[in-house]
Structures are given as C-alpha cells and as structure tokens.
Specification:
The complex is a heterodimer of chains A (306) and B (280). Chain A has helices at residues 42-49, 67-75, 93-103, 108-121, 137-148, 167-182, 194-200, 218-225, 241-247, 268-277, 292-300; strands at 2-13, 16-27, 31-35, 57-62, 78-81, 155-159, 186-191, 203-208, 211-216, 229-234, 253-256, 261-265, 284-289. Chain A has 306 residues and is an alpha/beta fold. Chain A has two domains: 2-217, Rossmann fold (3-Layer(aba) Sandwich), CATH 3.40.50.300; 227-289, Alpha-Beta Plaits (2-Layer Sandwich). In chain A, helix 3 runs parallel beside helix 5 and helix 5 packs parallel to helix 6. Chain A starts with a strand and ends in a 6-residue tail after the last helix. With 280 residues, chain B is mostly helical. Chain B has a domain at 84-278. Chain B starts with a helix and ends with a helix. The chains are: A alpha/beta (306), B mainly alpha (280). The interface between A and B is medium-sized, with 31 and 29 residues.
Chain lengths: 306, 280
C-alpha cells in the first residue's frame, strides 16, 4: 500500500501555478525524492503532502486518508522538517522537544524519554540544556530533525534538509538520515542538490516549473537520460561556441555552459585523447561519471543550481 | 489462575508493551494555550512585581496629585472622590494594553520570525486551535493581572461595592474586545510598520478620550458620539459600575454586549485570517 498517492495535483496562488498537475506514489519504507531547482514547486508539493496546505485541484491521499477532512489525524502521524528553521531559540534543545511533543498530546514522561533518545541520536546530548539560539546551523537542523521524530512518525518529510549548511554539517545530517532510512523509516526529501538526491533517494521525481519531467531510481535515470561518462572542457577564450562545433562529432551530445563544454561520451579518456589529437588545447579537462545534474540539464536545458 | 485473571494479566502486558501513539486528545487548543503560558512562566516574577508597582504609582499620583486638585475645586466627580472615580478605569485600560501588546508583535513574530505558528500547524494543531489558544491565553493573562489590580484598588479603599469582585472579568472582556480584532488585523500584516502608527493614533487617543479620567459628559456632543465606538469606553463604564455600585443593569448589559460582539466578530475574523495565511 502506498503512504502517499497523488493524482493530478495542482496548487495555484492567484494566477501563479506552483504545482501543475503531478502524479506520484510513495511506498512504505522507501526514501523518495523531489529534485528540482528553486521555484520548481517542491515546497508547495511538500506543504500539500504534509497536510498543511490543501491542493487546488486533484486528489491526494496521505496514509490512506484525505487531508481535507482528516488533516489533524494524518499530521499526528507525520514528521516535518521545514526548509526554514523554526525552533524556539529562547528554549533549550530539550524544552524545544518537550514543547513540540505536547502538540501531539503525548504524556510528558514519554516525551522526555523519547527526547533523551533523540538528542542522543542527533548527537546533541551534551547540549541538551543549551538554548537553541547558541547552536550552529548544522546543530539547529539536527535538532529540527530530532523534533520531527518525537511523534515516532510513519512518514518523515524533509524540505531541503541541508540547504545552507557547510559540507561537514551536511555530511553529519546525511549520515543520520541514512541511519533512519536503514531502520526502515519512510523518507520524503526535497532537494536541489543532485548529490543529496543520489545519496539518499531510492526513487525520485525530477521537477521543473511545477511539472514532473522524469521519474525513477537515480542510477536508472542517469542510464536512461545520460551517457556513462562526461568530459568537461574549459577553453581560455571567451565563448565556447566555435569549440563546441569542433568537438561535436566526438560525443553523443555536447552541452555548452557559460564557463565550460560538457561532452557526453561512453569513455571520457578516449574522447579527451581525440580532442588533443585535433590540436585543440583546452585550459583544463575533467573526466567524470554522469550525475543527476546531467539528467536535469538534458531534460530541461538548464542547470539545477543557478 | 482463573481464565479471567489470565486474560487480565495479558491485557496489562499488551497495554504496557504497545507503543504510545500520538492522539488528538481533548481540546487541542489547550496545547496552543500552554505554549504561551510556558513562555510567560519564564518571566513571571518580573511581571508580577511591575503588576503591583504600576497601579500603586498610578493611584498614588492620581489620588494625591490630580485628585487633591479636583476634590478641592469641585468636591469630587459624580458624587465620589476623584480617586474612586478614576481607579476602576485602570482594569479596563490594562485589559486594552495587555491585549494590544499581545496581539501585535508576538503574533507577527509567530508568523514571520520564530515561525512557531508554522511549527504548530505541522502537528495535529489547526489554525483555529491557535486562535482559541492565543485568545484564551490573553484572557487568562488579563485576569491574573486584574486580580492583582483589584487587590491594590481595595488596598487604596476605592472599591465601594461587592460587585467589584467581578472587576477582573470586566478587564478580560475589554481585553478580548481588543485582542481578537487586532490579532485578526496582525494576521494580514507582512511587517510591523503599522503597529507604532496604530499605537499612536488609535490606542493612545482611546486611552485619553474614553471617560477614564473625566466623565464623557464633559466632551462636546459629536465627540461623545465617537466615543460610543471605542471599546475602552464601554469597558471603563462597566468597571466603574462594578466598583462604585452605581449605574443601571440595562446600561451595563449594553456595554457588555458591545464588547462581546467585538470579541466574537474579531475571533471569527481571526480564525478566517489565520487559516488564509497558514493554509495558503
């Protein structure tokens, strides 16, 4: 049975259509991602899935129930990590969890027990009695994750969980999410980081301008929409146009970005040798594997992070 | 062991091993109420001291300063001393003041800065629960301060009727008549720019022109008509009636009706605006 089922989901704000008729299903135990650039409609979708904002059109079932009539009942079984931190900065980490737990009508002793466990899990035990105001960005995010787990949710929804964090803090968050995933918690994640999507998601949809443009497992999407390897070339001169024409026949496809050329090829080293053989001298060259970024570029003609 | 006893043991075991699930519980709004009470409880000591100090200073200055002057020249107001006349207005004024303070910056903060309303609506709490929780907290807050003020008023021997026991309630009613409409307005605001303006051009004039310091009979006729639309005027009138034991039941019912209507319409608008904003 699917935990979330959406058919023809639409969200409009006045004349602006944020989500433009999308279908998806999320199953128990999987980690499902919404990948797309800022403004693709991910957060609007998350707000509908978390039963805060009602869909303008379409049908949505969360945990088998209709958010229109069973909002509070469904939300009692969801955990939400919003994009913007919304901790009570005046309260300690522990009191933040106590306060949130009471919204779910859990007994105090039970909240206390879970909060202690969750602070342990998010590596915040030593700071349990510190005001959240004194926490770093990464610690605040971990506390928000701890908070979202206080109700022992059936479905954990994370909206851009690592946006704005430094690399070390990101990895710590990923590691914790990975552990939740391995414990069988169903995760729904939105992100505009392709590495985040590749690391955490079993299955994902790629969103652009309110629509779903592709759906599948990260590796399957890469295989389906991109080549095995990518050769990145940077030339000294401004404008890569003439160079693009010169190497066009060496690759399945050539993408011209403002600062570099991307050659989609099966074997990057072989293609680089061919480029050199033509007497072309790129300032730098890099061979790498295809990523979801390339899939997105292929499908929309634009990069994920502007 | 009998079968029943075994079944009972089994039942206990099941009950202790079953994980505790979140529930909706009774009256979810009470948890939004506790949210405010928790924050208040962290600073209540300072607030209690100022709650005693302010009315003492106010009554001392009004009674000993202005009061002496008034009593000397006209022998009191409406048959009572100036202090007895002006003291009960304190309850209504404080109701207005607490309510308007609680309904501007803190509500905007919960929408925009701490985002605590967004946090709450991601749990079983609904926007309606938030409104009821907030307004009931304002009511309790005004009531607590009102009880202290009533004690101070009694200490100054300004209360002439046992009806004065209801003074805190009159303060609460006045407070809600302000809190609900102001909160409904705040829920539509994106920044705090309008708040100081509202204070300067609405709250302060109401404070000065609603019969707190002199009977409105002193005002020109057109202004007396305007004052009818000021909630504080109705609050002050009720408080004075209760404290002095004069005034008709019909007039008091009318004043209370106006305040109740404002609070009810305000609360309705509040729920509408909170939902509009949080469920967008």
């Amino acid at each position: 049975m699917s935990l979330v089922a959406a058919r023809g989901l639409v969200k409009r704000f006045g004349d602006f259509t944020a989500v433009d008729g999308i279908d998806f299903e999320i199953y128990r135990g999987e980690s499902f991602g919404f990948l797309g650039p800022n403004g693709a409609g991910k957060t609007s979708t998350m707000k509908m899935v978390s039963c805060i904002s009602p869909p303008t059109e379409g049908t949505l079932l969360v945990l088998g129930q209709d958010p229109k009539t069973k909002g509070p009942q469904i939300r009692a079984r969801l955990g939400l990590v919003p994009q913007e931190d919304s901790l009570e900065l005046e309260l300690s980490a522990m009191d933040n969890l106590m306060m949130y737990g009471r919204y779910f009508d859990l007994p105090r002793a039970e909240i206390k027990r879970r909060a202690t466990e969750l602070l342990e899990f998010t590596q915040l035990s030593e700071r349990a009695n510190d005001k959240a105001d004194n926490f770093s960005g990464g610690m605040k995010r971990r506390l928000t994750i701890a908070r979202s787990l206080i109700s022992d949710p059936d479905l954990l929804i994370l909206d851009e969980p690592t946006t704005g964090l430094d690399p070390q803090a990101r990895h710590l968050v990923w590691e914790r999410l990975y552990r939740l995933k391995s414990e069988g918690v169903t995760l729904v994640i939105t992100t505009h980081y392709m590495d985040e999507a590749e690391q955490l998601c079993d299955r994902l949809v790629v969103m652009d301008r309110g629509k779903i443009v592709a759906e599948g497992a990260p590796q399957a999407l890469i295989q389906q929409h991109s080549t095995r390897e990518v050769l990145e070339l940077r030339f000294a001169m401004n404008g890569h146009g003439p160079h693009a024409a010169a190497v066009a026949d060496l690759a399945d496809r050539v993408e011209e970005l403002p600062d570099r050329l991307l050659l989609y090829v099966g074997d990057g080293d072989e293609a680089l040798a061919a480029v050199h053989a033509r007497g072309l001298a790129p300032q730098s060259a890099l061979v790498r594997r295809s990523t979801l970024e390339d899939v997105f570029l292929r499908l929309t003609g634009r990069t994920l992070v502007d | 062991m009998t079968t029943e006893a075994a079944a009972a043991t089994n039942a206990t075991q099941v009950a202790t091993t079953r994980p505790i699930q979140p529930t909706l519980g009774w009256a979810p709004w009470r948890r939004a109420f506790w949210y405010h009470a928790t924050f208040w409880s962290r600073t209540w000591r300072g607030q209690v001291i100022s709650s005693f100090l302010f009315p003492v200073l106010y009554l001392a200055s009004m009674g000993l300063g202005v009061g002496k002057l008034v009593n000397h020249h006209s022998g009191g107001v409406s048959g009572v001393t100036y202090l007895e006349f002006v003291a009960p207005a304190l309850l209504a004024m404080t109701g207005m003041q607490i309510a308007s303070n609680e309904s501007m910056w803190p509500i905007l903060a919960s929408f925009k800065w701490t985002r605590s309303y967004w946090t709450a609506v991601s749990t079983p709490i609904t926007p309606r629960d938030l409104v009821i929780g907030k307004l009931s907290w304002v009511g309790v807050h005004v009531a607590m301060v009102g009880v202290i003020y009533t004690c101070v008023l009694e200490a100054f021997q300004t209360l002439l009727s046992p009806w004065a026991l209801l003074l805190p309630l009159a303060g609460v009613l006045t407070g809600l008549a302000y809190a609900a409409p102001i909160a409904a307005f705040t829920a539509t605001q994106e920044n705090e720019k309008s708040f100081p303006v509202f204070y300067r051009f609405a709250i302060i004039p109401m404070f000065l022109f609603s019969g707190s310091f002199y009977p409105i009979a002193q005002l020109p006729t057109w202004l007396r008509t305007v004052v009818q639309f000021v909630p504080l005027y109705h609050g002050v009138a009720i408080c004075r009636t209760l404290a002095l034991g004069q005034g008709s039941l019909a007039a008091t019912a009318y004043h209370a009706g106006v305040l109740l209507a404002l609070a009810t319409i305000g609360a309705w608008l509040c729920v509408r605006n909170f939902r509009k904003r949080l469920e967008a």
